Amino acid sequence: MKVLRKPLLDALTRALPGIGDKETVEQTTTFVFRDNCIWTYNNEVAVVVPMALSGLQGAVAARELHAVLTR
Question: Is the predicted pLDDT of residue 24 greater than 90, yes or no?
Answer without folding.
Answer: no
